TrEMBL record:
This is hydroxymethylglutaryl-CoA lyase. Its EC number is 4.1.3.4. InterPro entries: Aldolase_TIM (IPR013785), HMG_CoA_lyase_AS (IPR000138), HMGL (IPR043594), PYR_CT (IPR000891). Pathway: Metabolic intermediate metabolism; (S)-3-hydroxy-3-methylglutaryl-CoA degradation; acetoacetate from (S)-3-hydroxy-3-methylglutaryl-CoA: step 1/1. It comes from Aestuariirhabdus litorea. Keywords: Lyase, Metal-binding.
Amino acid sequence: RLPTRVRIVEVGPRDGLQNEQQPISTDLKVELIERLANAGIATIEAGSFVNPKWVPQMAGSDEVFRQMGRTPGVQYAALTPNLQGAQRALEAGASELAIFAAASEAFSQKNINCSIEQSLVRFKPVMELAHTAGIPVRGYVSCVVGCPYQGEVEPQVVAQVSRQLLDLGCYEISLGDTIGVGTPASITRMLDAVAEEVAIDLLAVHLHDTYGQAIANIYASLLRGVRVIDSSVAGLGGCPYARGASGNVATEDVLYLLDGLGIEHGINLQAVAEAGHFITQALGRPNGSRAGRALLAK
Ligand code: HMG
Ligand code: MG
């Protein structure tokens, strides 16, 4: 049965821009975030607080968080790998944190330079800090169906890591198909395994669209009862630790799907399409949203 309402987590300003090679000004990032908030998106991942040596584009996240105007009711989330990042994020005024683990040992090592188990140890002080500050924390699991280094990933491992993040105190677990290899069959198998450990209403899907399966995978996830979807305006992005992986599913495409299914989301699709046009023009990139392009051509 399909849900009646879905929450969108916009990850474009972080996941979408983190891999961009050309310099992007703080003003441009801020305008993108403000446009997305004005369009009615209630959760926006606005940046990350990681080692700038590895992800230079996010080095200015402190400045972004300090400069952007805040819309009441909007959560401005920051991706943080450890205590150092969490402290920086809170000082800059993040209203939500996201920690990120993986269901693949090889990816964990490449991405955050430690094992899955060590990463969970590193997250403990982050959770304590956030708890003291009264800030909610979201947990990501990467490589939920496939890993760029290790190949296929067992749904049981995804379920275990999801459970561990929940036990640490995350309010929601976002399941990342980092390299977009899933299909409705493998995504459904994975969701069924995870739902044994974590209630379906605490799960989100975070699907990169490398093989063009993301919209089909979202429909399959909705049919399983998932009510939170991560997406990126204009389909921006990719992961610096997953070569060849394309951006997340485009927010505009997801909203068009939800509208067609009669599922509420509270977002102005036209305004998101305009934000997608704005950012892709500014970056000199093609707009990766099919729905966005169609709406703008009207
Ligand atoms: P490490 O080398 O193990 O950390 O890196 P360390 O604690 O040994 O510190 C080494 C150096 O990093 C030190 O600096 C620290 O100060 C610095 P030095 O003394 O050499 O000058 N450092 C930091 N600097 C700034 N902010 C910090 C921080 N922490 C340490 N928070 C670390 C571990 C995780 C920090 C590193 O590997 C890193 O930053 N990796 C980048 C990971 C990343 O951003 N990946 C992309 C995002 S994840 C993603 O896209 C997937 C997702 O979208 C879901 C999906 O699609 O599946 C979420
Ligand atoms: Mg991602």
